[in-house]
């Protein structure tokens, strides 16, 4: 059964979607960008700070669903500039145990919502 997952510790949706959907034991998050949920402002100081905010937003959603990054089985990373790959990967990697890290793809795109540099979504399982 489909259950909406929402938390004030992650940014509110900016369109007709939800932060995440829990279907059975599977959690599907919407792509997260670097919006600070406390003030609604973008965090674009530098690419590592931006990626950190994205991961914190995902962490908040996972926690609302009573999960953690250990439950993540698949991630998708969208980058507006593949030259940022190494720096985003450094931040991203700090949230996972390398031995149990999820499957992943990283894709370069022409543009992202609000013209941010990185967007990440995850699929997790309990």
From TrEMBL:
Query: What keyword terms does UniProt attach to this protein?
Result: Coiled coil
Please provide, in alphabetical order, the Gene Ontology terms of the cellular component aspect for this entry: cytosol
SUPFAM superfamilies, per the entry: YjgF-like (SSF55298)
Coiled-coil stretches noted in the UniProt entry, renumbered to this chain: 44-75
InterPro entries, alphabetically? RidA, RutC-like_sf, YjgF/YER057c/UK114
Q: Write down the superkingdom of origin.
A: Bacteria
Q: Which GO terms describe its molecular function?
A: deaminase activity
Q: Which Pfam families match?
A: Ribonuc_L-PSP
Its family? Belongs to the RutC family.
- Protein name in the entry: RidA family protein
Per the UniProt record, the source organism is Aquimarina algicola
């Amino acid at each position: 059964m489909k259950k909406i997952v929402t938390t004030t510790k992650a940014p509110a949706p900016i369109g007709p979607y939800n932060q995440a959907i829990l279907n059975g034991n599977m959690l599907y998050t919407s792509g997260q960008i670097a919006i600070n949920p406390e003030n609604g402002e973008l965090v674009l100081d530098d690419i590592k700070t931006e990626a950190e905010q994205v991961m914190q937003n995902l962490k908040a959603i996972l926690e609302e669903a009573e999960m953690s990054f250990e439950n993540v089985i698949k991630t998708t990373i969208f980058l507006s500039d593949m030259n940022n790959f190494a720096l985003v990967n450094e931040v991203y990697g700090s949230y996972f145990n390398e031995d149990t890290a999820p499957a992943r793809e990283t894709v370069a795109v022409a543009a992202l919502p609000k013209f941010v540099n990185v967007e990440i979504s995850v699929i997790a399982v309990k």
